[in-house]
Design brief:
By secondary structure, the protein is α/β, with parallel strands linked by helices. It has one domain: Rossmann fold. The chain is about 40% helix and about 15% strand. The protein has 12 helices and 7 strands. The structure holds adenosine-5'-triphosphate and magnesium ion. The site of magnesium ion (MG) has 6 residues, from helix 1.
Length: about 260
């Protein structure tokens, strides 16, 4: 049975989407069958993997509203073998209100994923920067939550709230849910601040922390504008190497 990982942190711009795209691509490169689900109405995973957000025939929104099937919604990536996506665009922002009266609305995504779960080794869900119904759906669907933490001064801010939400979901909606781990992103080796943040989080956060630290790397920021993951855009860059190492760590964790 495939592993389902929600990439979540309600703080904006910490590297959720960059991690969802590149971890997915690196797992696929390792021969894993991967589905990445764009659960963010910003649609950055969708555009970052080369899809024109506003030209999509079927999106996660249609799927969640019961207006298309999982097969309609799935697109195979042109550049990376073994990588599929359920894309999203701004329409998804309406889902929260439109699904307000639907019974069991916290399980809509889970019920759709259950139909295809056996076809994948990994399902990676990119969450929006809030703790809303979409994030709750992602956490209800997931086995684990992977939390990117940006190496900056306010890194720990909001983490208590995030952990609280994970615990609430675990108590009420998904008793299997665990924290996959924390991954540091945008580490800048030239500043003391990055190092201080890493040490501070390690001291204060009682969670699994990945050994791999993602450096600040301009190639990672450029890749989405070409619609490809870092493994295609610049396979020898530091960003590609480090996301490969993260993928190996994530893969090996499953064997523990
Ligand atoms: N390691 C990195 N090195 C350089 N730039 C990065 C790195 N990781 C992310 N970025 C850039 O930082 C910005 C925010 O990253 P990203 O979109 O992945 O964050 P996010 O958490 O998904 O944001 P949001 O909360 O809006 O969804 C983007 O412009 C991205 O290209
Ligand atoms: Mg994002």
């Amino acid at each position: 049975m495939g592993r389902i990982i929600a990439v979540a942190n309600q703080k904006g711009g910490v590297g959720k989407t960059t991690t969802a795209i590149n971890l997915s691509a690196c797992l696929a490169e390792l021969g894993q069958r991967v589905l990445v689900i764009d659960a963010d109405p910003q649609g950055n995973t969708t555009s970052g993997l080369g899809y024109e957000k506003n030209d999509l025939e079927h999106t996660l929104y249609d799927l969640m509203l019961g207006q298309c099937s999982v097969y309609d919604c799935t697109i195979e990536n042109d550049f990376v073998d073994n990588l599929d996506i359920w894309p999203s665009n701004i329409n998804l922002s309406g889902a929260e209100i439109e699904l307000l009266d639907v019974p069991e609305k916290e399980y809509i995504l889970k019920n759709e994923v259950a139909k295809i779960r056996g076809s994948y080794d990994f399902i990676i869900i990119d969450c929006p920067p809030s703790l809303n119904m979409l994030t709750v759906n992602a956490m209800t669907t997931a086995d684990t939550v992977l939390v990117p933490i940006q190496c900056e001064y306010y890194a720990l801010e909001g983490l208590t709230q995030l952990m609280h939400t994970v615990n609430l979901v675990k108590e009420r909606l998904n008793e299997k849910l665990e924290i996959e781990g924390v991954v540091f992103t945008m580490y800048d080796a030239r500043t003391n601040l990055s190092l201080e943040v890493v040490e501070n989080v390690k001291e204060n956060l009682d969670q699994n922390i990945y050994k791999t630290i993602i450096p600040r790397n301009v190639r990672l920021a450029e890749a989405p504008s070409y619609g490809v993951p870092i493994t295609i855009y610049d396979p020898r860059s530091a960003g590609a190497e480090n996301y490969r190492m993260l993928a190996e760590e994530v893969l090996n964790r499953g064997d523990d």
